Amino acid sequence: MEETAKLVAQIVGPRIRRIRRAQEMSQETLGYLAEVNHHGPISKIEHGEQLPRLDTLIKLAAGIGVSPCELLDGIVWEPPGVRSAGPDGRVRGWR
C-alpha cells in the first residue's frame, strides 16, 4: 500500500472499529448493513491494513450511523512546499 494510503488507513480504520465497538456491533453485522459480504475486509480496514474504496467508506459510515465526514475529520494533507508544523511541532505532509 502506498505510504499516503497507509497513513489514512491507520487513522480511518481504528475510527470505524471504535465506533462499531461502542455500539456493541459485530463485524458481521456491519458487513451486512454495509453490504460488505465478509468480515475479512472489515478486519483489515479496522486494523489499518487496507484503505476502503470511497463507496465502501460511505457504506461503512452508514452502517455505523455516522457521516463519512466524521471518519475523515481532521485528516489534512499539504502539498510539498506548503507544509506546516503539526501540534507536536513536527513538519509533515499529513496532520
Shape from CA axes? Answer: elongated
- Name the structural class: mainly alpha
Q: Count all strands and give the number.
A: 2
Radius of gyration: 14 Å
Biggest sheet: strands side by side, in what order? 1-2
Q: What is the H/E string?
A: HHHHHEE
Low-confidence stretches: none
Q: Could you tell me how far the N terminus lies from the C terminus, measured between alpha carbons in angstroms?
A: 19 Å
Give a brief outline of the structure:
The chain has helices spanning 3-22, 27-33, 39-46, 54-63, 68-72, and strands at 84-85, 91-92.
Structure explained in plain terms:
53% of the residues lie in helices and 4% in strands. The model has no long low-confidence stretch (mean pLDDT 87). By secondary structure, it is mostly helical. Helix 2 packs across helix 4. The longest helix is centred in the N-terminal third of the chain and has 20 residues. It contains five helices and two strands, in the order αααααββ.
Keywords:
5 helices; mainly alpha; 4% strand; 95 residues; single chain
SSE inventory with pairings:
Blueprint: H1 3-22, H2 27-33, H3 39-46, H4 54-63, H5 68-72, E1 84-85, E2 91-92
Antiparallel strand pairs: 1-2
Helix pairs in contact: 2-4
